[in-house]
Amino acid sequence: MKIYTRRGDDGSTALGSGARVSKDSPLPEAYGAVDEAQAVLGLVRAEAGGELAELVEQLERDLWRVMGELAGAARGDGVTPGMVTWLEEQIDSLSDRFEMPQEFVVPGENRVAALLDHARTVARRAERRALAAGVGGDVLAYLNRLSDLLWVMARWQAGEALPSRD
């Protein structure tokens, strides 16, 4: 199978419905941002090991479902309320392990924490792009909760937080 089709050379892409839209239209912007977040999480997983790598791998798998739903190709395998609940459970579990910062923090205590913060900001962008595309429901809730989880994961990996104020 060839990876190229040449159909996108005119600046269009196909949605799951088969409809062609401009590559810079709202839905491709949204699932493109999710794809970028997934790639950053791949960097996290490559750097990390153990429990963190397992958690990140599950997030990467779930993001395929998010992208499929945004592209209209989920075919019954999209985002579910249970996926949002799972994110909340991970947030609660990790938050119980350490004292959460009570103020803004400067990112970058170490490479993994910095990559998690990068993934978080990309997830926030994906959420904004999904909202601009008129997407709501479980997809929007998932992206919102994902960025919360990534913030908690970054603080967990950073260890001691560097406050934004001296």
From TrEMBL:
It comes from the Archaea. Keywords: ATP-binding, Nucleotide-binding, Transferase. Residues 1-10 have a biased composition (Basic and acidic residues). This is Cob(I)yrinic acid a,c-diamide adenosyltransferase. NCBIfam families: PduO_Nterm. It comes from Marine Group III euryarchaeote. Gene3D superfamilies: Cobalamin adenosyltransferase-like (1.20.1200.10). The keyword Cytoplasm does not apply. One of its GO terms (molecular function) is ATP binding. Residues 3-156 form the Cobalamin adenosyltransferase-like domain. Residues 1-27 are annotated as: Disordered. Its EC number is 2.5.1.17. Transmembrane segments: none annotated.
